[in-house]
Amino acid sequence: xxxxxxxxxxxxxxxxxxxxxxxxxxxxxxxxxxxxxxxxxxxxxxxxxxxxxxxxxxxxxxxxxxxxxxxxxxxxxxxxxxxxxxxxxxxxxxxxxxxxxxxxxxxxxxxxxxxxxxxxxxxxxxxxxxxxxxxxxxxxxxxxxxxxxxxxxxxxxxxxxxxxxxxxxxxxxxxxxxxxxx
Length: 182
Fold this sequence. Notes:
This protein is an alpha+beta fold.
């Protein structure tokens, strides 16, 4: 009887240790790495394509499976014929998306398209004026500089604004009139 009682104690102790080990492994390796569902709202900042085949691109470069509707929705186009095979744009298209995402709300209605040229990211306004950003580094500051140049009452027409050095923007040409305020 004593042997049987000792065997049961060892069995219970072994089971308790095994249960303790499983609980420890769960808390150390599993609990903190499990994902919890959360909703991420993506703001579309650009479009790829046109018409029924158009897709929107979010500010982080994610290709959205939906396209915003409504007459007042205006998204600048990226120079890509179709959506990428993956779920995100990459390379120069992603650089353009970062610049477009940094555009202030007041200027977004005037942004027609984006390109990647010799001077990097180039944003074309609806009036034909080109804003040359270079890369997307400090894009918000470059947009503030662009807004300051476009709001300057002494400038009535221009072709492009070079924003690669946002502290010293360069204004060239006189071929396009500034966009009218909304």
